[in-house]
Amino acid sequence: MIHDVVGHEWKSDAELKKLRPDADCVHVDGFYFFDINVHRTFILIEFDEDGEATEVWAGNHQEYEQVFKNNKNTVRKWLKSNEYMA
Fold first, then answer.
1. Rounded distance between C-alpha atoms, residue 72 and residue 86, angstroms
2. How far is CA 48 from the centre of its chain?
3. How far apart are CA 8 and CA 17, in angstroms?
4. Of 44, 63, 47, 64, nearest to 55 (Cα)?
5. What kind and span of H or E run contains 43?
């Protein structure tokens, strides 16, 4: 996954999903979850306007469900409460 993320500048969500079908845009400000199926690990990454990637959250599937409840609205609230977005 790191190899896929480093050095790429995606012009669209579709372009990213072509390379990483496990990418799920959870907020239009550039926040994506990646579901690494082999390890059942979820990683929330923010891509800024310069294409810089920052890991925001990582955990296993059970932790993901506890924190985010499989709900994009909960993800948005979590991002706000942790000052990742206004």
1. 16
2. 12
3. 13
4. 44
5. strand 41-47
Query: What are the pLDDT tens digits along the chain (86 aa)?
Result: 777 777 777 778 888 888 888 888 888 888 888 888 766 688 898 888 777 888 899 998 889 999 999 898 999 999 999 998 87
Nearest Cα residue to 49 out of 11, 5, 22, 20: 11
CA angle 53/64/70 to nearest 5° reads 100
Of 45, 46, 28, nearest to 36 (Cα)? Answer: 45
Using the structure block, give the residue that is written with the tokens 């409460």: 81
